[in-house]
Amino acid sequence: MKYLKKIKPLKNLSLVDKVEIRIIEFLKENNLKVGDSIPKELEFAEALGVSRTVVREAILRLRTLGIIESKKHKGMVLTEPDIILNIEKALDTKLIGEEMLKDIFELRLILEMGMADLLFARKTAEDLIELDKIVKKEEKDLFDSTIFSLEYEIRFHGKLYEMSGNNTLQRFQNLLLPVFQYYHDKKLPTDEKFEYSQKFVSHRDILNHLVNGSPESFRNAMRQHLEPHFDRVLNWIKA
Amino acid sequence: MKYLKKIKPLKNLSLVDKVEIRIIEFLKENNLKVGDSIPKELEFAEALGVSRTVVREAILRLRTLGIIESKKHKGMVLTEPDIILNIEKALDTKLIGEEMLKDIFELRLILEMGMADLLFARKTAEDLIELDKIVKKEEKDLFDSTIFSLEYEIRFHGKLYEMSGNNTLQRFQNLLLPVFQYYHDKKLPTDEKFEYSQKFVSHRDILNHLVNGSPESFRNAMRQHLEPHFDRVLNWIKA
């Protein structure tokens, strides 16, 4: 059960932890929705038999998670939490350890391999024209298109995420960018020497599959395009 | 720029928001690492020229995000935030709106299509034996294996996530389960009538690809297996 590693045993819960859990249960039991008002600090304190300070701290946590906000004249109301914003803040601290960074880097490869069907179902003529512009600019700027340029990678792949029509996926990709930068800056010495047996698949090739191919042909092209990254991922030792 | 929808304009930042941002900047500028102690509340208050109450609230937020914790005799120290736990708390509230639920449901399909290469690189003989047991039990319990049983879906696909060797992915899948349940309970009337043109691909078929096939053949089998879900996803209208 290693994926539950950070959930505290019940006996270690602080009073604030318990109050936080009770308030969340209260919201669920009463089937409260976004925009609904919730009881005042004092009412929670009386109902739960704890001090206002404890309730205040628990509510502050729910506020931080984006579950509650204060509205003028309405008091505290429920709000839809912005999950991605919370991840963003945590990632921003640079406190993420090596194992988590590896997981996240792998996640990027998984997402790019997995989004083919959404891309084919949702691509528009405008999208393809814009993607063509991105590739043309890249071809013009770089004599040797096999040189890995992070900026062009981000522009091309970022457009694909946008085309997926999945807003959460797109915001997720946005906040993963620093992780790519990290691995890009931290190239292994062996990276340069590695000889790729398969033909290099360029952004132009991928675009051609998007225009004339199928989700299946796109996935195979993307897999080859991502070969240097997969090569790193499939060879590293995980804890 | 719709993916930045919830980031507040600078002028709307409260004093606590500003102090929170300054403290995060301070951690980054000083290159502080997990386990390092940070200054006391009073020191932050004096350095920033704000009240201790404001600093306390900002620090409480960082504590909620899992960036800071209090240690006996060491005061406040930095800790690696548990990103997944924060998402879990937010999802747990049932305040997630329809659009986000759709995004998350799509994300599951993307992940299952995209993880093939990791599965082939990391599968072990033990994994395959366990997966075979899961499928055998399913075949024994269900006379008609085309009946969609959520329990068997979770057991089989959950094992695949575990085999990916990506701890973050696995925990992520775990907390997505309520979303699958939601869509499972909320079957559209058209779901039953839909005629699938492609051959139904069972868990047994997918397992055979894992044993004897390639990442490519696995992806194609998985795509067919997920057809009823993709059919729903590719037909819904997104905001």
From TrEMBL, chains A, B:
SMART domains, sorted: FCD (SM00895), HTH_GNTR (SM00345)
Keyword Transcription attributed: yes
Assigned keywords, A-Z: DNA-binding, Transcription, Transcription regulation
Keyword Transit peptide: no
HTH gntR-type domain residues: 13-81
Gene Ontology MF, one: DNA binding
InterPro entries per UniProt: GntR_C, TF_FadR/GntR_C, Tscrpt_reg_HTH_GntR, WH-like_DNA-bd_sf, WH_DNA-bd_sf
CDD domains: WHTH_GntR
Pfam families the record matches: FCD, GntR
Protein's name in the database: FadR family transcriptional regulator
